[in-house]
Request: fold
Amino acid sequence: MDGIADVSPDLWRQYASAEPGTIGGNYLRTFWQPVAMSSEVENGRTRPIHVMGERHTLYRGETGTPHIVGFRCAHRATQLSTGWVRGDDLQCMYHGWTYDGDGACIYRPGEKQTGRFERADIGGYPAREHLGLIYGYFGEGEPPPFPPFEGYRNIGVIENHVLDFPANWFQTMENHFDEVHIAFVHSFGGSHNDLGRSGFQLPEMKIYETGYGMIRETRVEGGDWRKTLYLLPNIMRILIPTFAELNDAGGWRDTYIIIVPTDDENHRVYFTQNVHIAEDEMDVWREVHDRFNARVRAAPPIAELAHKILAGEAHITDHMDHPHLLLLEDAVTQGGQGQFTDRSRELLGRTDVGIVEMRKVFLREMQAHADGRPLTAWNYRGEEPALGFDPGSG
Ligand code: FES
Ligand SMILES: [Fe+2]
Reply:
């Protein structure tokens, strides 16, 4: 589909939604989606998850295997994440009904028939792990190959971060095709000053489709091309400055960013970063990390702060020392569009070329899926992103 200008507000909501049964929601369910960082669920523990408008229970068996099953117990509907993990099964806290890793009910204490009871099955979803993230597959039929992307050719230390964002997932995808925002949104904290674009300069931009999705190439006068990869629909590989002081240990990071809808007004952003730390610098790296994580735990989450800023109860300039300032800046502008924005209110200009190009591809793919036509067979073979300049650290 080329005519993105003709898409009605209602149709936009269908595309940008991730709820089950919508065009976007059905499409996103044909891909593996991260549901948690591996470190968020210890062996023998559970965690409620909220993905693409649906709630499920994630738990790790005592052996460490991750499982995703239904959210509520079939007996009297209490939330199963409050239950106990027994081996690789999950037992409800309320009256002990027990489910296996596929959500099959295998035990009902006190009932005449205590064993396998199909009517009480709560359903399960395939769960796998890759580079510090647990993924689930929520679509129909066989899941696509796993892992969904190759990883790194030369693996060092893998760092994972996750943040909740107060905006529809597609707004953040659009933002990632919007190189121009950097010069303004991120001028507060100066995180991107190394790009040499403080003070506004419209970068030269090339955005085109490739075998795994899209590429964005940008440069400012006299510079080299900065190259960012989009493993569509919602994975990006990019070289970025990492969070504030973490740059002191390892410099800019080769990063996979994955945008996963929570519901239509919120999403989670997963960062997987590869960093090469020399043996004798590991202590410094650990120390910097511990200090950073302690600061994150003590700071208000960016979604909460963004809501306050948008309500006029706080101002971003009062939070310049926030450990996630870089993302707070993004959360404020994207949440500020309205958590599920109405695109019929927009007035696009020439700086929006990236957004126009990405919308064409998404709409084409989503509409193809909705019409039962085959999707483009994307295949990522490990091409690497390029920075186009020397960030001077690391
Ligand atoms: S509600 Fe789960 S066993 Fe009763
Ligand atoms: Fe940004």
